Amino acid sequence: MSHKPIRKAVFPVAGLGTRFLPATKAIPKEMLPIIDRPLIQYAVDEAIEAGIEQMIFVTGRGKSAIEDHFDMAYELEHTMSSRGKDMTILDGTHLKPGNCAYVRQQVPMGLGHAIWCARDIVGDEPFAIFLPDEFMHGKTGCMKQMVSAYKEKGGNLLSVLEIPEDQVSSYGVIDPGARDGTLTEVKGLVEKPAQKDAPSNLIISGRYILQPDVMRTLENQEAGSGGEIQLTDAMAKMIGSQAFHAVTFDGDRYDCGSKAGYLEANFALALQRDDLADDVRKFIKKYI
């Protein structure tokens, strides 16, 4: 059975990044670098690897640096080229106008509302969602793994990771049904359950493939936790009427919305690079 291809991805990037102040007073948190590439670049590269054609950025005030990053930088590029510099370092930073769109979330009303702001561009087709500060790193990108599962199952998919049971109270957790390898049927979603009440230790991890029906659900969604319109609430309403599966990601996740997770991501990737690994090992030993 063939399913409509996943051609579009939504990147909700309107958040204020208050946990990284004062660094994020003038720079979007999505532009904070992991080594030498901003977080948003890794997410877009992951989308391109998965065959996604159009990137939809839901932005807010003060986020123009994201748009600039994916635009031409004539002065920089002309100077680099005339001096014989390696131009491949800028690969992936040019998104053509037809391959990207920018939408404003004018009021910070939650993740569900941010996704809903992209409804006109998404249209009536399934789409992917990337939360850029959930940095997913593997030999094969998380979204490519999910698109592969989507081609087989269709419906709606969530990326999940298995974590120690004593940590589940900090995350959204799935209520699992039948399992088939890395695929798990989703019977329900529970937000930050107590350990004793958690239906599993599989946490939702910042990547989604959803059918366009979620936009109609969000249209009439009432505010939930924190007084915001929650994407999890809208998905929970759809479970039972549409197929929902979870894909257990084969790779590593770094919570770059926290300072410790952001630092860990930098160290982990630096240790995988031939030009940095030896120096990083030396200074880690020095401070430890």
Word description of this protein:
This protein has helices spanning 39-49, 64-69, 74-82, 111-116, 119-122, 142-153, 213-219, 231-238, 259-270, 277-287; strands at residues 8-12, 33-34, 37-38, 54-59, 100-104, 127-130, 134-137, 156-162, 172-180, 183-191, 202-210, 244-248, 252-255. The chain is globular, with a radius of gyration of 19 Å. The N and C termini lie far apart (55 Å). Helix 7 crosses helix 8. The model has no long low-confidence stretch (mean pLDDT 89). A hairpin with a 2-residue loop joins strand 2 (33-34) and strand 3 (37-38). 38% of the residues are buried. A nine-stranded mixed beta sheet has the order 5-4-1-6-11-8-12-10-9. A two-stranded antiparallel sheet has the order 2-3. Strands 7-13 form a two-stranded antiparallel sheet. It is α/β, with parallel strands linked by helices.
This entry's quaternary arrangement is: single chain
> What is the arithmetic mean of pLDDT?
89
Strand residues, percent: 15-25%
Number of helices: 10
Q: What is the CA-CA span between the terminal residues?
A: 55 Å
Order of helices and strands: EEEHEHHEHHEEHEEEEHHEEHH
Could you list some keywords that capture this structure?
two-stranded antiparallel sheet, alpha/beta, 288 residues, globular
Task: Produce the secondary structure layout.
Layout: E1 8-12, E2 33-34, E3 37-38, H1 39-49, E4 54-59, H2 64-69, H3 74-82, E5 100-104, H4 111-116, H5 119-122, E6 127-130, E7 134-137, H6 142-153, E8 156-162, E9 172-180, E10 183-191, E11 202-210, H7 213-219, H8 231-238, E12 244-248, E13 252-255, H9 259-270, H10 277-287
Parallel strand pairs: 1-4, 1-6, 4-5, 8-12
Antiparallel strand pairs: 2-3, 6-11, 7-13, 8-11, 9-10, 10-12
